[in-house]
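**User:** Here is a favour to ask of a fellow structure person. Please take any protein you like and set down a full record of it. No explanation is needed for now; the record alone will do.

**Assistant:**
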Amino acid sequence: MLELQRFKAAAVQAAPVFLDTDATVDKVVALIAEAAGHGAKLVAFPEVFVAGYPYWSWIMNPIEGSSWFERLVRSAIEIPGPEISKIAQAAARHQINVVVGVNERNRHGIGTIYNTVVTIADDGRIIGRHRKLVPTWAEKLTWAPGDASGLRVRQTSIGPLGALACGENTNTLARFSLLAQGELVHVASYIALPVAPADYDMAEAIKVRAAAHCFEGKVFTIVSCSTVSEEIIQAMEASHPQARALLSRRNSAFSGVLGPDGRVIGSPLIDEEGIVYADIDLSRCIQPRQMHDITGHYNRFDVFNLNVNRQPLQAAHFSDGDAVMDEVPVEAVAEIQKDRP
């Protein structure tokens, strides 16, 4: 008999302690405890929450922003590493699944960092690590492109879980690849972007993208977006006189939960810090698929064909069979953690 989970989800809308890795990790741990204390079995954190977003790339030229890039690299983390282990331990302690965005440093290249989404099971195992496939617009000054090795749906205690970072939720094929793996719960992590074009409503754009994924795939989406704190504004203001005006526009952040019909469940957050909670019943994903099941009967796989290369990209291959790997497979990380006392 088919059994589908019911659970409470939490979406965090907050700012990191800007470029302070240890303090931000402590904030993540505290928010995990808060969400779990309210009964949540899944908590989602914003894009690159550990420990900040490169706003300088939107308001400064590359030369002006170069020293800030170095600070970001220095604050980035490796996976596995002590910072993500501390978050994983909190997940296990509170028996809650966690999805968190981080700046991940390539362990073989100190100037190469990735926009990475990490998925942690409620027993503390790191079960997913997805590097953003294409950094968006000005972000190309900061992050290297990821590969599809982590473009996977993870089986968790609350159901099949997938995640994408910010603009990836606009990428139809990336989203379809998760739906095709049986995704029922989707986490979309974002940053507040006040410096978008004047006629662009970032909060509305986030909601529209989440609604599209929910309605097309008949899934639940948990949206977690960061905010721009006074600390961030003051830091950027010290390097650019127009930073406050550029980073203070309203309707720049949206966090909430949407259901399989594309509608928002409960009350979302716009711009303000807090945690959104919603009760999710995955059985609601069934009936809408009788009409549209785009990974099943409502498609023509004899007409359309999607191939996804999930081989990890490597810097070099050597004739003795060794390879310079810029990542440790998450499956290996999970085994390492399982054997720890």
Remarks:
- The longest strand covers residues 97-105.
